[in-house]
Amino acid sequence: MRWGVVLSMTVLAVVLIGYEWPRLKKQPRKDKLVFLSLILIAWTLSLFDLPNIPGPTTMVQTLFKPFAILLE
Amino acid sequence: MLEKGKISASQMGMMLFLAVVASGVMSIPGITGKYAHNDLWLSPIWAALMGTVTVWIAHRLHCMYPEKTSVQYSEEVVGKVAGKAIGFLFIFFYLHLSGFVVRSYAEFIVQNFLHKTPISVVIITMIFVCTWAVRAGIEVIGRTAQLFFPVFLIPVLFIPLLLNNMKLDYLFPMLEHGLVPSIKGALVPGGWLSEMFLLSFLLPYVRNQEKGKSSALYAVIGVTLLLTMINFFILFVLGKQIGDFLFPVMVAFRYISVAEFFENMESLVMAIWILGMFVKISIFYYVTVLGASQWFRMSDYRSLVLPIGFFVGLFSFWSFPNFNTGLYFDIYAFPFYGPLIQTVLPLFLLIIAALRKKGQSQNQNLTAAKHK
Amino acid sequence: MSGNPRKWWKANKGRMQQKHVPSHTPLEKNIARNEEILRTLYTNCSDVVFRSFLIFGTTPALIIYIDGLANIEEMDARVLAPLMQGRGNTEWRTEDFLQKVIPISKWQEICSLEECVESIASGYPVLLIDQQEKAISIGLAKWEKRNVEEPVAEGVVRGPREGFTESITVNTSLLRRLIKTPALKMERREIGGYTKTCIIVTYIEGLVEPSLVTEVNSRLSRIEIDGILESGYIEELIEDQPSSPFPQILSTERPDVVCGNLLEGRIAILVDGTPFVLIAPTTLFSLLQSSEDYYQRSLASTAIRWLRYFFTAMSFVLPSLYVALITYHHEMVPTSLLISMASSREAVPFPALVEAMIMEVTFEALREAGVRLPKQVGAAVNIVGALVIGQAAVQAGLVSAPMVIVVAITGIASFMIPHYIAGISIRLLRFPMMLLAGTLGLLGIMLGVIMAVVHLCSLRSLGVPYLSPVGPLRVQELKDTLVRAPWWMMDTRPKLLGEANPHRQAPGMKPGPSNGGDAT
Q1: Which residue of B has its CA nearest to A63?
Q2: Taking the model in full, what pTM does it have?
Q3: What is the ipTM of this complex?
Q4: B135: region left, alpha or beta (phi > 0 left; psi from -120 to 50 alpha)
């Protein structure tokens, strides 16, 4: 099951790069670098079991726990 | 300038209106009703204060740094390192929210209409469509917002169809427990209205700058009016049980039945609501892309559309693991988180910027005096 | 000649020009030499006639023309007769003597072989005279052409019955008859390496935004192609977004439509050899407007416009809506209707999506066959068509009756679009819409609509937004979009790009008892 996700995410990353590359070719080096590294980060993130690990929402929720009492 | 397109002030107003109200109109009334009970119609008016203050701050900052978005001017206000940090905070905030909004849209669709469709399909199709719009630029988003704005208001015309289901008695007793419940109920819509800060990313691209502030304020007024009206409407239809429903608006529309033919309007309402959500998601997505490309100092923001789209998809799973967590976030965290990033942080920037400008002009005065 | 055609063109460009178009070779004094060159150029051209004769029995001369393109009777009577039968003196060598002898108004002296060839090809006989370095192009062209007839594809009940023809001179004359001001400009150019097709860009100076003319001209001058046989070639070569299904340039057969658009500050492109004239910039709404809208009473026009908008939307979404309702959203259909629909679908073996696809494709096939078939066979197609999409198909249990109704309405709706070409593109889009509806139901339809709207919002025609005046909104111009305001209200011209002369007419022309009406 997980392998399916990994495979499809890899395919997605490759498709995104393949689609954007012809246009990106003319852009400065920095743009390519940012583009590729963002795709790489996203791809790495996609390998984790995202719904079940603490994410930004969990972080924000713990941060604002003291205020939440106001609404209890 | 990364974005070469221009929008008109009225287009910006409609974009802001849809950006705030599209998701709000479904989930806010239920949450407000939970706290404010039959005083829920009052809450949006308190919340409007938050929107007005945010618009005011964003506009003041824009006047100090015209042609710059908040990601760009925060570097000028508090210096390079702190500015980059604040810029990152903005980008991350909007990325998080984009993912969150996409997911809540998908949850709503799956729970109410397409029970058997896998949620990832709903998410991916929406992100795909938004990617298309974001790549086309702010001009196209502005025009679509303008086209969808009147369509989005069509369901309001259905409200009179429910006149014989309405009971005005539900309004009373008014303010039974004082103002506190209605203010508590205003916290959630207040968080939503702080999203008016999107203004700071759109204002630099407005053609008729002088009308920018007023059309943003019109957007605040519009949001308030619509929410108040919807709150009245569901209060009259559903009475005290509003707080028990997650999506009371959909429940209320289910009551519609005219001549046994115009029934089950909720599918139509959902279809129209999708248009609004599309605009909302595109704007959040666009702001993230624009902010990120300014943060990285790219030469073209379009290079980032696809990677950020990938991120939005991931965040829709990461930041919204299941429906209950999402709801909890909406009620207990976002009313503080949203205004903190979108109102308090900009206010802090504004104060520093004002002090700096003052210092600068004093310095200039001093040097001028010396030269005399 | 295999391989990349563009490369072939590049490689052979120089040679071709030498062989076919002697570029700026001046004519020689010796007539025999000139004749030799021209005869080599026209080797194996049986339609080119070389006629040698002696002027006044002394000086050798030569007349060259293309059989069937030149007016031979006139040439015999007005050129050959006076020159051959006149009495010989040397007076004829003076400059204007020939003009005195030959009574013809269209007369041009040419000095190069290139011009000779051009003139012969356009049908003008060329007269070469010994010991003269210039030739004379005689304006006696005449060829068979179609009469001005009523356009078949754009019929009106009220309005002029004239349509353009294949001859560009007739077409320009039709325009000039309607717009008499000298501000109506017609810029001529030739495109096509072999066909040398005459293209005329026409606009009204003072109304058109000059940058638009420059843009059109620069786009046209980019074209390097073997031949232009129809204005469709030009359209595809100059449009803004070639991959879009929507036509960004309007084509029409009606002079009144062209003139109306010229008066709104647009540009028309006439192409020789086709009755279809291109108009740019175009918006989606001008595709949905018929010229008759402006001749009818405004109230009726407004109503018809709305009907058209509604059915255009229908032809786009109706089949997909049906598929979505049948497959996913039963609750949206009122119960009694649902029951009757379900009972008629009982015997149908296909899922709704497949059923809709089959029927819509069949409809398209019948339509296409109806267009291509000879008139005599048309009746047969009609009968078969009525059986296929109709009672027989329903009775056979292959399709359900509601599906037949949906297909019929969609078909009719798509033919309500006044411009046939635009209708086709909207009809094509309903197939992906049906697929979306079959997979995601109403959500799919909405996503499809959003994609279409985003695409339309990003389209431009010569830089003018395709959805203007609705997106971006220009309230002033809605008077000719949402409604068709009466003429006395149409004071301002649509603003395309820039604002060249925004006023169309004097304000306050509303007729009434106290204002020009019958004040008794």
Answers
A1: B333
A2: 0.88
A3: 0.91
A4: alpha
